Amino acid sequence: MIAWALNFALAGVSLALLLTGWRLLAGPAPTDRVLALDTLYVNAVALVILLGLKWRSDLLFEAALVIALLGFIGTVALSRFLTRGDVIE
Fold first, then answer.
1. Do 30 and 82 meet the contact criterion of CB atoms below 8 Å apart?
2. pTM metric for this prediction
3. Spatial distance between the Cα atoms of 10 and 24, rounded to a whole number of angstroms
4. What is the mean pLDDT of the chain?
5. Could you give the CA distance from residue 37 to residue 21 in angstroms, rounded to a whole number?
6. Rounded Cα distance, 13 and 16, in Å
7. In principle, which of 13, 20, 27, 65 could form an S-S bond with 33, CB 3.0–4.6 Å?
8. Residue 17 resides in a domain
C-alpha cells in the first residue's frame, strides 16, 4: 500500500513540476516567473524527499535541504532585484 501511495505521489509531483515549468516559460510577467520558480523549488524538494523515501536513502534528504536553502535564497534575490533593481544595498 505504501509503495502505491509513493508512486501516486511521485506521479502527482512530476505533473506539478511539468506544469510549473510551463508557467515558468510562458509566464506573462516577471513576477509570475519568480513565483513559478519558487514553486518549482518546492516541487523539486518534494520530489527528492519522495525518492528518498522510495529508495530508502538518507543522502537524498540532505540534498532536499540544500535545494530548499538555495531555492529560498534565489527567490529572495530575484524578488529584491525585481522590486529594487539591485540585490545588495
1. yes
2. 0.88
3. 21
4. 93
5. 8
6. 5
7. 27
8. yes
Q: Is residue 10 part of a domain?
A: yes
Q: Is residue 72 part of a domain?
A: yes
Residue 49, domain CATH: 1.10.287
pLDDT in tens, 54-63: 999 999 999 9
Q: Write the burial class of residue 8 (CB in 10 Å: 0-12 exposed, 13-18 middle, 19+ buried).
A: exposed
Q: Please report whether residue 89 resides in a domain.
A: no
Structural domain including 29 reads: 2-84
20 Cβ contact partners less than 8 Å away, ≥ 6 residues apart: 36, 39, 40, 43
CB 45 within 8 A of CB 67: yes
CB 9 within 8 A of CB 50: yes
**What domain count does the chain have?**
1
CA distance 3 to 9: 10
